[in-house]
Amino acid sequence: MLPIMPIGPRAENPTAAVERLRAAAKSRAAHPRRMRVHQLRTMKRMLEENESRFLDALGHDLGKSPTEGLLTELMPVRAEIDHALLHLTDWMDKRPVKTPLSLKPATAEVQARPKGLVLIIGAWNYPLQLVLAPLVAAVAAGNTVIVSPSEKAPATAAVLRDLLPTYLDSALISVVAGGKDCNTELLTHPFDHILYTGGERVGRIVYEAAAKTLTPVTLELGGKSPVVVTESRNVMAMARRIAFGKFTNAGQTCVAPDYVLAVGDAAHEQLVRALPEAIREFYGEDPRVSNDYGRLISEEHASRLQDMLAADLQDGAQLLVGGRVDAHHRYMAPTVVTGVRADHALMQEELFGPVLPILKVETFQEALDFITARPHPLAAYLFTDRPRFHRAFEEQVQAGAVCTDVTLLHAGLTTLPFGGIGASGIGAYHGETGFETFSHMRPSLAKTDQVDTLKVAYPPYTWFKRKALPKML
Ligand code: NAD
Fold it and tell me: Can 182 be counted among the known catalytic residues?
């Protein structure tokens, strides 16, 4: 384990960072393609040369096993870097668009231009990925960047504060201390874009502050992502995929299945039989001694989940598996609860931990109505053998993403945009979407002055012009 490093001299004062990087943005030093490529390649080298430091820090903050850290933090960032390096030239190229007859001869194009100075505020649950994946997009788009890691994952934040200025060009990228006070100061300044990842409450604070300076925002928030399960032909595959989505990172994943709606008795029974088996396969008889099972971020977070669980068990819900909590050691066993009702504590807010409530509904339509009556989640999952249900789910459910017979993995695809809708967020990133998020997709029009076809649009408006104009579009 790494000792937790102090903030140290490398964490720049927020206002000083803004002033310095604002000037750097004006100099356009981050614009050239070769500079972007150089920074991206260097970031990749930083990940390769310091893999074990990053994995140790993740182990310290969240008890992530090295393999889980690799799979869910380092690999997605590497994939983002490789994807950006492969496509950067295309993304930066001018994109010609058609012009109407009335404007010919002319050239109309859209070109991605760097926005300028951007701020990235990360969350603690994937403290590396949620800072570095947006950084890849912001750098690929040619911006100067201030990175504010979450203070709640201090070991990872310390490694970022140490390594980013060592590897990347400090004239263009700054890492600040992070946390409430630092962000409050940062948010008094105008930026050209802010990408914030975290909960809704702080999301509103960021949005309000950004409104004062007319700064565009991407808000990557959370919500209660549902899983609808109908009777399945391959029960164990279904159970493993749900358990993987739920218990990876001890349930502290923004797109983790939050609760299950089991449609009918048969689906419910299948799930109740298979989920404990899948959990045993993953983490053994005692998950507490499994090297592959993570820890909660804090004692308070463990106590919060423990209290909600206790209240619902007193109020008619039943423990299927797990339930053991040792808040002091930030441990909560993978837990599944049946007999849960919509008015139970576990159903009032995003759980963000390893408790999976199962609710029984009679029909598939009832499940759809349950989901659509609530705020739009960040992801919605369906496990079914019936194409009719699949079509209805895709048609009726509004969520950041919909996935059938799989959980979580859509978040790792560089080819899919990642973001929420409504209460689960504003905007998206990853891959080309991330590049465009941090770019101004600037239109341009150039018209030759050799032939003045525009005359027809100028006053005085004669009878002839009135007839001719509509035909020229
Ligand atoms: P958090 O406590 O790490 O806070 C997020 C960020 O906000 C941190 O950098 C923190 O320093 C900063 N912050 C805290 N108070 C602030 C304030 N008053 N002003 C300005 N900044 C402040 O994370 P959290 O909020 O506990 O995150 C959990 C939530 O994040 C969950 O709802 C989860 O679903 C969501 N999340 C979403 C995504 C996504 O990609 N959509 C990813 C991870 C987590």
Answer: no
Residues 189 and 256 in one domain: no
* CA–CA separation, 20 and 365 (whole Å): 56
**Residues 211 and 355 reside in one and the same domain:** no
- Helix, strand and coil percent figures for the chain, each rounded to 5: 50, 20, 35
Q: Do the domain assignments include residue 365?
A: yes
Whether 363 maps to a domain, the answer reads: yes
- Centre of ligand 1 from the C-alpha of residue 32, in Å: 32
Q: Could you tell me the residue range of the domain that residue 428 belongs to?
A: 14-221+422-442
- The model's pLDDT over 297-338, given as tens digits with 9 standing for 90+, comes to 999 999 999 999 999 999 999 999 999 999 999 999 999 999
Confidence (pTM)? 0.95
d(CA 329, CA 261): 31
Is the domain of 435 the same as that of 409? no
Q: Is position 19 within any domain?
A: yes
Mean pLDDT over residues 46-51, rounded?
98
Residue 10: band (very low, low, confident or very high) from pLDDT cuts 50, 70, 90 = low
Which of 128, 148, 150 for mutating ligand 1's site (highest number of atoms within 8 Å of CB)? Answer: 150
